[in-house]
Amino acid sequence: MMMVGKAEVPVIHENVQLQKNFTITRGSIEMLCLHKILESERPDIDEKRNDLLKLQGEFAVQLRELELVSQKYANLAHACSLVYLTLLHLDEVHFLYHYSVDFIIDIFDDVLKNSQLNG
User: Fold this and answer.
1) 17, 30, 46, 106: which is deepest, by most CB within 10 A?
2) Is 110 among the domain residues?
3) Which residues, in sequence order, are CB contacts of 104 under 8 Å at separation 6+?
4) In total, how many domains does the chain have?
5) Which terms in the GO cellular component ontology are assigned (predicted)?
6) Nearest CA to 105 among 84, 90, 82, 85?
7) Could you give the C-alpha distances from 112 to 75, 109, 115, 116, 117, in angstroms and in order?
8) Spatial CA neighbour of 46 closest among 31, 30, 35, 58
9) How confident is the model at residue 1, as a pLDDT?
């Protein structure tokens, strides 16, 4: 006897199920086999590789934290680029209104230095 239908899974159980979805892929099997081979044939390389993979994971976490802090300043960088693009079009009004990127960056550097001095 075969029953056909969609089983109702409570939301709580769906979340638990999603968190415990350990899918085995070709890549994960290859990595596991490589680990076993290195562990057997070259334990020194396996240990060094594992240490470096651990460091890579730690650096990835640190990089994510730095990127979160950097995002706080992204709006200011965007505004600065808009100011430059606006000034870039002023030469359409008069040819003497021509500003280089270096000029705008120098002004931006001065603003940043003065804001640090003023606190």
Assistant:
1) 46
2) yes
3) 80, 83, 84, 87
4) 2
5) cell cortex; cytoplasmic dynein complex; cytoplasmic microtubule
6) 84
7) 15, 5, 5, 6, 9
8) 35
9) 47
Alpha helices in 42-95 (DSSP H): 43-71, 74-88
Q: Which domain holds residue 53?
A: 25-71
Calpha distance 55→51 (Å, rounded)? 6
Structure token pair of residue 98: 């021509």
Residue 12 lies in a domain: no
Q: Is residue 19 part of a domain?
A: no
Taking the C-alpha atoms of residue 65 and residue 55, their distance in angstroms, rounded to an integer, is 15
Q: How far apart are CA 49 and CA 37, in angstroms?
A: 13
Write the pLDDT tens digit of every residue in 34-92: 999 999 999 999 999 999 999 999 999 999 999 999 999 999 999 999 999 999 899 89
Which long-range contacts (C-beta less than 8 Å, at least 24 apart) are formed by 85-94? none
pTM: 0.51
pLDDT of residue 8: 58
pLDDT of residue 19 exceeding 90, the answer is no
In a domain, 32, yes or no: yes
Do residues 59 and 82 both lie within one domain? no
